[in-house]
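WARN no homologs supplied; continuing
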Amino acid sequence: MTKQGILRMVVSAATLWWGGCGEAPGQAVMPDSRGVEPRTDVSSSPLRLRTLDDALLEIDAAVPGFGGMYYDEKGQLVVRLVHASAAPAAARAIAAVFGQEKLPAGGVVTEPATRTFAQLKALHTLITPSALSQAGVVLTDVDEKTNRVAIGIERAEVRPGLEKIIERLGVDRDAIDIVEVDPILPSNVQGGWKPISGGIQIETPGSYCTLGFAALQSGTLGFVTNSHCTQTQGGVESTPAYQAVYPDLAGTETTDPFYSSGGSCPVGRICRDSDSAFFSANTTVNPLVAMTPGAFNLSISGWLDVPGKVLYPSQGQVVYKTGRSSGTTSGTIQWACATVNSGGTPHTYFCNYIATSSQQNGAPGDSGSPVYFLSGNTAQLTGLMWGSGSNPWNFAFAPLGAIQNELGVVPYCQGFVGC
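OK structure emitted
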């Protein structure tokens, strides 16, 4: 079908809005642990369940020199002891506290310990309130493998401030390991994920959007999202995309064609075939799409393999999308290969699609969502959502064929190949 022959569609009762650019706050708000005093009354509560550390402290009380225990790579139970001769007593205490089934048939393996578990737990209790009050500190833990207390930090710049805290508390520096770990974010489509995949949140300067799908461009691995999620819609200005939030860089914009006017483009408007841009990846990418249990449930219920694609779907087909705001929703294609105006903007799209539903199936922040056919545990990619509306509820998307033509990409599919 030629562009001139495509229906020019006017959406009056339901203006399509950009489905992605929810404004990003200047700073994420996290629970504040400053000033929290360690609890001393918890053990007296009959409703409190015993934790792992509580159980290990019981063994420590029964076995002088018990330094903790862990399973090694071979599945062996390794017991750390200050005095190796305490191994039989440690095995009896482990069975008494955890049950006989805790002991492997071949017995336990012992390793030397410098500190007892009780000493490490006391150090952990002392240092945790001050350490976790510092920005960039992720965790504290009694690490039985190293027989030390571990403090996890997001980046090396956090270390000097943490060293001052350790010095101020006057504790044994050799008993503490400082290690770099990634921040722990909520386990949903708005959380942090590595490797990155389709359907999860990305942040670009000033807005939140959704990562569409992994893609290959002349051998370069990256991903596709909406052009309007970049700093300037149309044209490349190397917009950074973070997952899920700054400063965790996921990719950098490298392809984003300009919009054009004239010809079959309506007077006073600028046109493209798709609202899309390609980002070269700065981290590992997986050919998967996140799936949630349903509309506005943002928990991830599974990861869908991407075995292939459909370049141009047809009217009447049911398509799905996963977005950072409304999760996994669906719609029936009511308008196929229509010419669509983006409400409140000068942008018009040739041969785009609108999928409608009786329930809300899109929301701001969903911009860039992958649109796909759902079959079992697979997602057959077919487009990229860019807007949504109501009366009836709907989401608009560019077909995959248009995206491939404009960006020179192919989806990154199951088997880690272009398809």
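The radius of gyration is 27 Å.
OK
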